[in-house]
């Protein structure tokens, strides 16, 4: 896609890597409604890593999203690379009870939704339960996430509520 835009006289200057780059897992109990997955690691999922052994996470940042960012900037001359994430880390929040995310002390929370909000979001389970990090750990979470992204060459984030 980058090449065809450049060849057509409209080179891109930035890109936003949207939903799909993060490490997530679906909830254990899936209902008929659309379940929202929860973040289970700060780093990218293995689809965004190179030289991955079967099912094993690559811990070297140079073989993670940093590699993709480097290609985008060097080969395709993009000036900025942004990534997306949800305000709560991912649509269903942060997965509690797993070693990779224990620093954020997340718990499952049931929000009090207004009838109007539920009317427009009734097809999802997002209003029923979220993996929310401990408010005292929010700064640590964003610091860990954004520090990793900056170290990988990512220039900014697009955040959805």
UniProtKB/TrEMBL annotation:
PANTHER family: GALACTINOL--SUCROSE GALACTOSYLTRANSFERASE 6-RELATED (PTHR31268:SF5), PTHR31268. Pfam families: Raffinose_syn. Belongs to the glycosyl hydrolases 36 family. It comes from Taxus chinensis. It comes from the Eukaryota. This is Galactinol--sucrose galactosyltransferase. Keywords: Carbohydrate metabolism. The lineage of its organism: Eukaryota, Viridiplantae, Streptophyta, Embryophyta, Tracheophyta.
């Amino acid at each position: 896609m980058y090449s065809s835009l450049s060849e057509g006289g409209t080179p891109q200057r930035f890109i936003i890597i949207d939903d799909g780059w993060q490490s997530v897992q679906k909830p254990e109990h899936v209902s008929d409604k659309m379940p929202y997955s929860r973040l289970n690691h700060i780093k990218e999922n293995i689809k965004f890593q190179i030289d991955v052994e079967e099912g094993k996470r690559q811990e070297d940042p140079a073989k993670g999203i940093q590699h993709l960012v480097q290609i985008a900037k060097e080969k395709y001359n993009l000036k900025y690379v942004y990534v997306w994430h949800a305000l709560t880390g991912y649509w269903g929040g942060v997965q509690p009870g797993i070693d990779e995310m224990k620093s954020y002390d997340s718990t499952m929370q049931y929000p009090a939704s207004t009838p109007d909000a539920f009317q427009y979001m009734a097809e999802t389970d997002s209003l029923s339960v979220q993996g929310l990090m401990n408010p005292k750990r929010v700064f640590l979470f964003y610091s860990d996430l954004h520090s990793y992204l900056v170290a990988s060459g990512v220039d900014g984030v697009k955040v959805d509520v």
